[in-house]
Design a protein that fits this description.
The protein is α/β, with parallel strands linked by helices and 186 residues long. The chain is built from 5 helices and 10 strands; from the N terminus they run E-E-H-H-E-H-E-E-H-E-H-E-E-E-E. This is Dihydrofolate reductase.
Length: 186
């Protein structure tokens, strides 16, 4: 069963980036035990990627000329004009996430849809009732302020913890279902 997933890392106090989009706090953990396996297993089941314009701009600034999602359809929500790297399957869009859900599902085929970020975009999916699962790596640092994990307008119903595991360097991976009863193995 195809799922819409928010696979993300956040600080202990619930931020995915500093106020200036600095990820140095997270990048210091590159190569932690279990991290590559978790990511590779996750990506093997992804057929479509959806991201916000700020996330896309960050990738273009920090990985110039190297599109990390080659071979996977990607949709970028943005109000700015961007160019796609050569060979990247990227469609730039604007509007409500619900307007494009059929496109995302078709692009993903039998695989899952990954909402890369940012948190505002993931919150739009959640508020529209479209987000199935949050796969959260809790990084053992406190930022104090920054871009929130899931800046929703109100509380959610209780989420269902589908799985948890310890990874290297004190990182904990949590899998929460936003629609309890759904199969977390899909």
């Amino acid at each position: 069963m195809q799922r819409i997933q928010y696979f993300v890392a956040a600080s202990l106090d619930g931020f995915i980036a500093t106020p200036t989009d600095d990820l140095g706090w997270l990048l210091q953990f590159d190569g932690f035990e279990g991290g590559a396996d978790s990511y590779n297993d996750f990506m093997a089941a992804v057929g479509c990627i959806v991201m916000g314009g700020e996330t896309y701009a960050w990738l273009m600034e920090h990985e110039p000329g190297a599109w990390p999602y080659s071979g996977t359809a990607c949709y970028v929500f943005t109000h700015h004009e961007h160019r796609a790297p050569d060979g990247a399957d990227i469609t730039f869009i604007r509007g409500d996430v619900r307007e494009f859900i059929a496109d995302f599902r078709q692009a993903a085929g039998d695989l899952n849809i990954w909402v890369v970020g940012g948190g505002n975009l993931a919150a739009q999916f959640a508020e529209a009732g479209l987000l199935d699962e949050i796969i959260l790596s809790v990084i053992p640092v406190v930022l104090g302020e920054g871009k929130r994990l899931l800046p929703m307008k109100g509380p959610t119903p209780p989420l269902e913890l589908a799985a948890s595991r310890m990874l290297g360097r004190g990182i904990v991976e949590l899998r929460y279902l936003l629609r309890p009863g759904a199969d977390p193995q899909s």
